[in-house]
């Protein structure tokens, strides 16, 4: 995929991120940080794309124009859908944006809507009660956190956009199960607030994961598939493994202590745990690679529902 196609897809993702107009300042700042970070990984001027989208200097027609191949157009639509679903099911404004985008890309309406429905199902399953969501010992929670981290690291290796989409709902479900284990009944809003408090934005996290995979040539059918992904895992630096591991252990500390940690303490704990998790990445990379080879992406919705 050439630079113009990559730029077009990232522009459309940013347009999708702001389609509902509902991003608060914290999430806007995080999206800007991601744009700046992605710029360091490639020759594209992604911060300029961010400004163009935010100031409405780019139109949908001009954004889709460089996408000539059916594969690139399909990938652009899939990534935009996942951006809209990253923080929950689509709003009316996001549905309108995606319908306009689908038309501009010339995609088949039935196939596009089927994909969107799959993504919505994954997003909606984020904190649906899991069968095993009950009290666990500290050791059992530690194993659950590590298992979830390895699974999300494995999903990061796969080229399918829905695999990337599933990482955030699984992180939310992990926090939900940890809270329940300590006697707290959490809803989606609470879990989202917890992630935002420690510094994990939902839309921005998806943009970072998918953006790095796109720029690394690992996302979509054009990316060379699973084997290439397994060989180029360093492109994303085990981001999903580390963030899941850190979220799990900070959530365990937070709920075990009766939710008494301040925002600053939570953020400091998350930063410290994230550094520790990055150090563990190479140790567990073979487990992630082995898990990736066994994942059936056709069953992602059931996997997220089951935790």
UniProtKB/TrEMBL annotation:
InterPro entries: TerB-like, YebE. Pfam families: DUF533. It comes from the Bacteria. This is DUF533 domain-containing protein. It comes from Candidatus Methylophosphatis roskildensis.
């Amino acid at each position: 995929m050439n630079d113009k196609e990559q730029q077009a897809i990232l522009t459309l993702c940013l347009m999708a991120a702001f389609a509902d107009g509902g991003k608060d300042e914290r999430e806007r700042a995080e999206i800007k940080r991601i744009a700046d970070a992605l710029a360091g990984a490639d020759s594209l001027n992604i911060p300029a794309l961010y400004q163009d989208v935010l100031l409405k200097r780019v139109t949908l027609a001009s954004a889709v124009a460089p996408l000539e191949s059916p594969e690139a157009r399909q990938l652009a639509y899939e990534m935009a859908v996942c951006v809209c679903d990253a923080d929950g099911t689509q709003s009316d404004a996001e549905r309108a944006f995606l319908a306009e985008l689908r038309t501009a890309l010339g995609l088949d309406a039935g196939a596009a809507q089927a994909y969107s429905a799959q993504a919505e199902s994954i997003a909606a399953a984020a904190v649906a009660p899991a069968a095993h969501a009950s009290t666990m010992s500290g050791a059992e929670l530690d194993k659950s956190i590590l298992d979830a981290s390895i699974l999300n690291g494995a999903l990061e290796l796969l080229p399918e956009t829905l695999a990337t989409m599933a990482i955030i709902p699984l992180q939310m479900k992990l926090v939900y199960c940890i809270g329940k284990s300590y006697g707290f009944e959490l809803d989606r809003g609470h879990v989202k607030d917890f992630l935002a408090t420690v510094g994990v934005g939902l839309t921005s996290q998806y943009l970072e994961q998918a953006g790095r995979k796109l720029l690394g040539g690992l996302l979509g059918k054009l990316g060379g598939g699973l084997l290439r992904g397994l060989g180029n895992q360093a492109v994303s630096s085990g981001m999903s493994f580390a963030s899941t591991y850190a979220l799990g252990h900070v959530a365990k500390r937070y709920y075990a202590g009766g939710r008494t940690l301040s925002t600053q303490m939570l953020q400091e704990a998350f930063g410290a745990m994230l550094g520790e998790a990055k150090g563990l990445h190479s140790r567990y990379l073979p487990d992630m690679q082995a898990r990736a080879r066994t994942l059936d992406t056709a069953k992602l919705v059931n996997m997220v529902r089951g935790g």
